[in-house]
């Protein structure tokens, strides 16, 4: 194993640890926002759609909670790649379920509720910056997937207002992605310098 490979694995291990440390807050935020969204749309959207979506959301949160428990009990540095895959898969499932909200909970013939749903999805994507920018594959598995379905739905409406909403959301996603890439680059570079300095100190001590 080359020094660069070892360094990359150390960085990945730190990224995985930091993401798992934020699991509790992520689960609580998802649960709170999902509950608020379901409550707000209860009198507007068919109850069967809301129940299906909330059921999927709760199932996903339970699975991620169990994965977090497994991480706490069994994680070892040599398992880091496996847990990084779990993180990406968990983010993709979360993105897919939030994306489904833009279709399942989309009330036809209204403008206020779709804007509200879009606002919630944009807020969830923006909030992901504080955690998922640590590891870009997890970010790309969440934000684009969560915003794509409602963007397609808005475009299908065919009028200028919905087209403008779609353009604005995609522009926001592009800016957010560029911001996340920059944060991730700075974060990885700081980790790289830290580990290189630690290695240099070790060599000097020897």
β-strand percent reads under 5%
Order of helices and strands: HHHHHHHH
What is the 3D form?
A: elongated
Strand segment count:
0
Percent range for helical residues?
over 70%
Largest pleated sheet:
none
Radius of gyration: 20 Å
- Which consecutive residue ranges, at least 5 long each, have pLDDT under 50? none
Number of helices: 8
Secondary-structure-based class equals mainly alpha
Cα(first) to Cα(last) distance is 21 Å
- The whole-number mean of residue pLDDT values reads 89
Give an overview of the whole structure.
The chain is an all-alpha fold and 206 residues long. 86% of the residues lie in helices and 0% in strands. It has helices at 3-21, 23-40, 47-74, 80-104, 112-127, 129-132, 136-157, 160-205. The two termini are 21 Å apart.
Output the keywords.
8 helices; mainly alpha; single chain; 206 residues; 86% helix; 0% strand
Summarize the structure.
The chain has 206 residues and is mainly alpha-helical.
Question: Layout of helices and strands, plus pairs?
Answer:
Elements: H1 3-21, H2 23-40, H3 47-74, H4 80-104, H5 112-127, H6 129-132, H7 136-157, H8 160-205
Helix pairs in contact: 1-4, 1-8, 2-3, 3-4, 4-5, 4-7, 5-7, 5-8, 7-8
């Amino acid at each position: 194993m080359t020094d660069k490979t070892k360094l990359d694995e150390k960085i990945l291990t730190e990224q995985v640890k930091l993401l798992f440390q934020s699991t509790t807050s992520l689960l609580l935020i998802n649960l709170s926002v999902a509950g608020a969204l379901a409550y707000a749309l209860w009198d507007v959207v068919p109850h069967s759609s809301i129940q299906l979506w909330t059921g999927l959301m709760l199932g996903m949160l339970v699975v991620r909670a169990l994965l977090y428990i497994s991480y706490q009990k069994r994680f070892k540095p040599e398992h880091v790649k496996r847990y990084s895959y779990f993180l990406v898969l968990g983010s993709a499932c979360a993105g897919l379920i939030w994306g489904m909200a833009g279709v399942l909970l989309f009330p036809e013939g209204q403008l206020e509720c779709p804007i509200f749903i879009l606002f919630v999805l944009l807020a969830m994507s923006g909030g992901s910056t504080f955690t998922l920018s640590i590891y870009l594959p997890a970010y790309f598995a969440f934000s684009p997937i969560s915003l794509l379905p409602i963007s397609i739905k808005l475009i299908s409406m065919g009028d200028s207002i919905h087209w403008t909403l779609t353009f604005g959301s995609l522009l926001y996603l592009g800016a957010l992605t560029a911001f996340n890439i920059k944060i991730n680059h700075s974060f990885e570079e700081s980790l790289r310098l830290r580990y290189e300095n630690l290695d240099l100190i070790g060599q000097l001590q020897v």
